[in-house]
Amino acid sequence: MGYPMAGHLKANGHEVVVYNRTISRAEQWCRQFDGESARTPQAAAAGAEIVFTCVGNDNDVREVILGDAGVLAGVASGSIVVDHTTASARIAREVSAAADERSVGFLDAPLSGGQAGAESGQLTIMVGGEPDVVERASVAMDAYAKAITHIGPAGCGQLAKAVNQICIAGVVQGLAEGLHFAKRAGLDPAAVIAAISKGAAQSWQMENRWETMVSNEFDFGFAVDWMRKDLAIAMAEAGENGAMLEMTALVDRFYAEVQELGGSRWDTSSLIARLER
Description:
Elements: H1 2-11, E1 17-18, H2 23-33, E2 36-37, H3 41-45, E3 50-53, H4 58-66, E4 80-83, H5 89-101, E5 105-108, E6 111-112, H6 114-120, E7 123-128, H7 131-141, E8 145-152, H8 156-184, H9 189-196, H10 204-214, H11 224-241, H12 246-260, H13 271-276
Parallel strand pairs: 1-2, 3-4, 4-5, 7-8
Antiparallel strand pairs: 6-7
């Protein structure tokens, strides 16, 4: 997702230096957007007013931002680091504390909207951090966002993203069961969706995924492996705050079954596959 997001920054007149752990990806971006690349996060951050990171998990965030050749080793006092990774609130607070020691602003700012949202510049961003830092960084984030919402202090962006993933898990499971039921009942799924998508059952998942779900096509979005990573973060947090995530735990087990079917890289709508097998 960082690839098109950096492209939007460049297209909106920002000077952009990119870093990717896969060097060929950074080189490809430079050819496409006529930009510059660096060989380490430290080098990419040198001289930057704002540094954006978007990696895989807590360990990646720790390495790319806090490592010996990480962002904080290169970024100047008074600058801002914005982490778009979906990670834990714990790592967000850890990085925030380290950034504060260097007089660097930090925002945990996970995204919703997937690859399509990144490419179209229509992402939803949930932000944790100080209000003045959010205001300063929003000028740049506007290049690829349709909505930027400040949730609260450091870690709150990640907690809000956990809520997002919990809700999506329930919606996709409900849609999978509904479509499965319609097919078993001999109904035309297209007619059913036409009827119910204008009422209370409507959702983004219904509007954008029902047709590919009934066609068993799952190459369009967020991978099951990543969804299980996100749900694990939510359930771990729930273990600390006492929240009951019964449905989330159940759907996570269903995604484990999808993985067993060979669907680790299928998108999250593949929950229907375990019902149709």
